[in-house]
Amino acid sequence: MRPTLLLAIILLLMLGSFSSRASAQSSLGVPPGSPIYNDLAHFRALGFWRGSLELLPMTRGEICRAVEEIAAREKELDGGDARRLKRLQRACEGVGAPSRLERLAEAFAQEATDARQDNPRSHWELSAGLQFFGGLAG
Fold this sequence. Notes:
By secondary structure, this protein is an all-alpha fold. It contains 7 helices and no strands. The protein is elongated and about 65 Å long.
């Protein structure tokens, strides 16, 4: 078996254990004293966001959804409000983004596709290994 295929199998197996990182990151609570809530309250008072700040802490995912709602009306914001929005958007950077491991798995997926065309036996070995270790083969 080619070393790259073996590496692809290992990465795909590891992906199952690390793929929840982005979702775990978006489920982290933002502390109630964070200035993010002041910004959300400001946009709520202006009518740019219809959410509630009654149940704190909010998760980063909830805050980022609120920021998306506000950003949809970005053209209506003045200079100070646009700066507030940019600050909120910076707080949401990386939430839900693919992890480094997921990007590596995508890079090796193409190589595995090329190997499948070159050597059907390698494809069978990869598929059998993935099915055995978690039903990941397609």
